[in-house]
Amino acid sequence: MGWLKRMFAALLALAVLTVGVWPSMARIWLWPTALWLPRGETVAMPWSRWIPVALKLNQGPEVVIRHAAHLDFVGLDDGHYQLDVKLFGWIPWRSLPVTVQNPLRVVPGGESVGIVARTEGLIVTDTLPVLTGRQAADPALAAGISRGDVIVAANGHRALTIRQFTTFVQKAGHDHRPLRITVQTRYAVKQVDLRPVWSPHEKRWAVGLKLQDRTSGVGTLSFYNPRTLQYFALGHSMTDGLSRRPVSVSGHILGADIVGIVPATAHTPGQKVGILAGTQNIAGTVSDNNAFGITGNLSHPPIWGPQHPLPLAMPDQVHSGPAEIITVLSGQTPEAYSIDILKTVPQYAPHIKGILFRVTDPRLISRTGGVVQGMSGSPIIQDQRVVGAVTHVILSRPTLGYGCYAYWMVLTHQESSALAS
Q1: Does the predicted TM-score (pTM) go above 0.85?
Q2: Is residue 282 within 8 Å of residue 301, measured between CB atoms?
Q3: Res 29: pLDDT
């Protein structure tokens, strides 16, 4: 029976160790895939007191650290570095690209923008049977295509328009052969054969797909770099509207004139009512769409709105207390409105809900009831820093909303640009 007691003791010790180590281990996996450090600023990364770590920067000496709950990195000299991290001092775990540069100063936005973009692929908005006489065929169903899928190529041709796809369908039907298409589903990218059928009613070959190759909307400019005119907007991704997945887009932005407000009430979202207003105030390209919104380059600085750059805050510089959001309620001129930041979530990797805030400005509450659709992307200012952007409203209490950290908006775009290059 002695061996049973020893086994029980070992299992008990392992359980105690797991309970003690697991929360800190889980924090370690939150490390980002790259690190951007403004010169002179400090970023604290989570670690575990239970795990020794060896750090080596470029070709420098290896440093072993023990009993550390977090690791503080300070940006001293501008440049690009490679940080090699080893668990327990010897197990290779992560090679982290680190960029140190001047603290980024950005001009807050708040301007309403109209977004007109072409999707990089054809979004399937519906599938329907095709009448072939007395019977009906369903080519889309037979090929395994569903609503929300995105057709990214046909017969090897990418960057499709609906007109091009229709031409491919007619040729495939005329040649009595299937159309080979590449489809991006929620979970995978696959190739399928789509077989056109003749529709006597339409007098052409058909595949039973309703498609969309453009998307548009109204949002808010968050901030822009005054040197490069690169902007960041929305605070959340543009999606296909069906599966809510982000879609690859390219296009342009222009000014939007806010002509009305539908106030929010409990469980009923409000919204800004806007119309496209031309390029006098806002004009630019759309080059990227990720979890934190769209980016691109402005053709010129906005005429109406903030003009002076402010430092971009690190996530750990944001705190509970008074702040402001900048947004447009009428016309094209942004104004600042007071909020209270109720909670900030410590984050070591990008997430769109990092700031919980409450609208306190009576002017904003009386006009909108709180946070409304079209306000997404409105910059959040605290301590004369750009700290974040509005992303969501809490429907049951529309004076409460969420924001993301502005730092993640910049870093996520840098990572996606590096992957694309």
Answers
A1: no
A2: no
A3: 72
Question: CA-CA distance, 115 to 294, in Å (whole number)?
Answer: 10
Residue 148 · residue 124 · CB < 8 Å: yes
Q: State how far the Cα of 265 lies from the Cα of 248, in Å rounded to an integer.
A: 33
CA distance 78 to 71: 20
pLDDT, position 290: 85
Give first-to-last CA distance, the chain, whole Å: 64
Total Cβ atoms within 10 A of residue 102: 10
Task: Tell me the C-alpha distance between 221 and 255, whole Å.
Answer: 10
Confidence of residue 232 (pLDDT cuts 50, 70, 90): very high
DSSP 8-class letter at 316? G
CA distances from residue 109 to 168, 205, 234, 302 in whole angstroms, order as listed = 44, 49, 11, 9
345: phi then psi, degrees, rounded to nearest 5: -95, 120
With tokens 């950290």, the residue in question is: 405
Q: Which amino acid is at 354?
A: G
Residue with tokens 């879609």: 247
Distance of CA 108 to the CA centre of its chain: 19
Placement of tokens 């570095």 in the chain: 81
Residue pair 43/98 in contact by the 8 Å Cβ criterion: no
Six token digits for residue 221: 């400019």
Q: CB neighbours of 388 closer than 8 A, spacing ≥ 6?
A: 313, 318, 354, 355, 379, 380, 403, 404, 405, 406
Among residues 165, 148, 161, the alpha carbon closest in space to that of 119 is found at 161
Q: Dihedral of CA 119/288/412/275: which sign? A: negative
CA 206 to chain centre: 36
DSSP tag of 302: -
Q: Calculate the CA 255 to chain-centre distance.
A: 22
CA angle, 421 then 59 then 101, to 5°: 50
DSSP string, 341-371: EEEE---SS--S--EEEEE--HHHHHHHSS-
**C-alpha to C-alpha distance for 94 and 348, rounded to whole angstroms:** 15
Cβ–Cβ under 8 Å, residues 409 and 389: yes
pLDDT on residue 289: 86
